Amino acid sequence: MGCVAYFKNLYQMCVSILVGMQVTIGYFLHPKKTCVTLQYPHVCEPLPERHRGIHYLETEKCIMCQLCAKTCPVNCIRIESTRDGELLYGYKSKNGHLSRFTVDYGRCLFCNLCTEVCTPKCLHMQPVAERPYKDEFDFSATTRLGVLKNLLSDKRYTAEDHHRVKVCRVESKKLAEVKKQKTQEA
What we know:
Blueprint (H helix, E strand, L loop, with lengths): L1 H28 L1 H4 L19 E4 L9 H5 L5 E6 L8 E2 L4 E8 L8 H5 L5 E4 L21 E3 L4 E2 L2 H27 L1
Antiparallel strand pairs: 1-5, 2-4, 3-4, 4-6, 6-7
């Protein structure tokens, strides 16, 4: 009885291997028909119909209320700004100057809450096809810095952008001190 069970097991194993190899050989013999691998980045997978898109900021409309950053459930939006004066590397907004407005797509849930609370409606979620600047931004990166998007320039957040933010921080502190001195004098 042990010998019959052994050969039965051996037979079932061979059948299982042949069934698996049949699928593999079918893909091997007909690669054009059954190819499932896309040659990324030259060929991109089509996005689903209900894809919300990625963030787009109309800087000139922003009132720097920071509701979008406060509402974000995962704190992926970072904003730095000043209303005390003009910054060298700052972007002009409605009420002042923005020095940083970034979204960390490594953390973003694409929940759309940030755009719903935006009072002046300056933050939008737009599919790439509808965007005014069709940039090369995608979600593949080798470092954590690669998935940060600078919404002020609508491109990746680079080391150069980081340097500009540091310069703007120093400028903002100086402008705040000057404003504080003027109010004390008056």
